[in-house]
Design brief:
This is GIY-YIG nuclease family protein. Belongs to the UPF0213 family. By secondary structure, this protein is of the alpha+beta class. The protein has one domain: GIY-YIG endonuclease (3-Layer(aba) Sandwich), CATH 3.40.1440.10. The protein contains 4 helices and 3 strands. The protein has a 3-stranded antiparallel beta sheet, with helices on both faces.
Length: about 100
């Protein structure tokens, strides 16, 4: 993944069962995924064992990324499912081949 000075990501995680969906924002998606996988981020993702990256979007402005995160958090689950499927029809872990 190529890094620019101003890169931000809105991302969605699920667990191995796919029965929960978490939406977050970060300026370093690889580092954030490493923290999620190691359980270093307490709260929803550690409680429900969300460590499978199924969707992400990239932004150059943090304000746009935060606005998108808030928008997605207000979406119905079925709308989020359609969005994930548009990028990742098999719900694979998009970060599996990353060196993290």
């Amino acid at each position: 993944m190529v890094k620019n000075i101003h890169q931000y990501w809105v991302y969605m995680l699920t667990n191995v069962h796919g029965n929960v969906l978490y939406t977050g924002v970060t300026n370093n998606l690889e580092r954030r995924m490493q923290k999620h996988r190691s359980g270093l981020i307490s709260g929803f993702t550690s409680k429900y064992k969300c460590s499978k990256l199924v969707y992400f979007e990239e932004f150059n402005k943090i304000e746009e990324a935060i606005a998108r995160e808030k928008q997605l958090k207000n979406w119905k689950r079925e709308w989020k499912n359609v969005l994930v499927i548009s990028m990742n029809p098999e719900w694979k872990d998009l970060s599996l081949d990353w060196d993290i």
